[in-house]
Backbone:
């Protein structure tokens, strides 16, 4: 292990960057009294700010009550626009560029995985769909942390292992930094107060437990594994091997046709959301989605 992860600094959340300076733009939107449902939607493409806002909300949750795991207008109203504006205005410290880390692909994959987790979760009813969206969005924020905290060391590691199987990359990260990216993602989520079962599912979703350890957390981990495979396919315009996605789908009780239906709906939702990632042309611009997400029954109606 040659690099040290400053966990206290990481859990503070201020070091993680947002796409295209979105934080300052959202602070301006708060000043303009943007409707909170639109603000929640705008936040929904940004892992760093999503985690920070969920953390703000959970800081006010009394002990013993269920903690927040998804953004919504009621949560933002409880936090208040002044506190939100301050959170958005606190920019991440500029970091050196991390070679071999494609930031734009990272944002796109996180958003595609979030959409896929929500669509599949809506159909399978394993957890509230919006909470699964948050899990998909935050599942790989540990990699963003590594690229931000240690850009040179992580670039070297990606140069050596970036095209290898993911399990090999995770092992290399653990050897170099003491924690791999999914462990850091789970630590961040716990630091933001998200429920333990969701953090545990994120931690192990690259290699979920086998069927002998069946349970709700195992199902959630396989769902996130499926969502990650869907995100890979979405970013390749549907091209590529279906093996990993099919394996996860079958363990969740889905056949090939059902899986393809979920993939198609996930891709359609991502196509709506991805425009939000583009830098706003000016402060008054507010991209929102126009498509209504299909309910679980509609997703499977083709097979009834």
Residues:
């Amino acid at each position: 292990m040659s690099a040290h992860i400053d966990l206290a600094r990481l859990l503070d959340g201020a070091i993680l960057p947002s796409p295209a300076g979105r934080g300052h733009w959202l602070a301006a939107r708060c000043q303009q009294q943007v409707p909170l449902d639109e603000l929640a939607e705008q936040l929904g493409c940004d892992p760093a700010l999503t985690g920070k806002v969920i953390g703000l909300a959970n800081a006010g949750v009394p002990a013993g009550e269920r903690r927040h795991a998804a953004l919504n207008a009621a949560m933002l109203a409880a936090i208040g626009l002044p506190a939100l504006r301050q959170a958005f205005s606190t920019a991440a410290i500029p970091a050196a560029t991390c070679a071999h880390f494609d930031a734009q692909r990272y944002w796109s994959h996180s958003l595609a995985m979030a959409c896929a987790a929500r669509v599949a979760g809506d159909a399978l009813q394993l957890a509230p769909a919006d909470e699964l969206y948050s899990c998909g969005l935050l599942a790989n924020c540990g990699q963003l942390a590594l690229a931000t905290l240690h850009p040179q060391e992580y670039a070297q590691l990606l140069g050596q292992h970036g095209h290898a199987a993911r399990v090999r990359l995770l092992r290399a990260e653990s050897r170099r930094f003491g924690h791999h990216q999914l462990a850091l993602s789970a630590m961040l989520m716990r630091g933001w107060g998200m429920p333990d079962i969701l953090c545990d599912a994120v931690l192990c979703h690259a290699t979920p437990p086998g069927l002998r350890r069946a349970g709700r957390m195992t199902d959630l981990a396989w769902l996130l594994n499926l969502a990650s495979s869907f995100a890979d396919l979405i970013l390749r315009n549907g091209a590529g091997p279906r093996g990993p996605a099919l394996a996860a789908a079958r363990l969740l009780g889905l056949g090939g046709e059902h899986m393809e239906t979920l993939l198609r709906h996930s891709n359609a939702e991502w196509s709506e959301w991805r425009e939000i990632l583009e830098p706003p042309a000016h402060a008054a611009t507010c991209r929102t989605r126009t498509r209504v997400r299909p309910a679980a029954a509609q997703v499977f109606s083709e097979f009834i």
Summary: The longest helix spans residues 103-124. The two ends are 54 Å apart (CA to CA). Confidence is low (pLDDT under 50) at residues 281-286, 300-304. Residues 96-303 form a domain with the Hypothetical protein af1432 fold (CATH 1.10.3210.10).
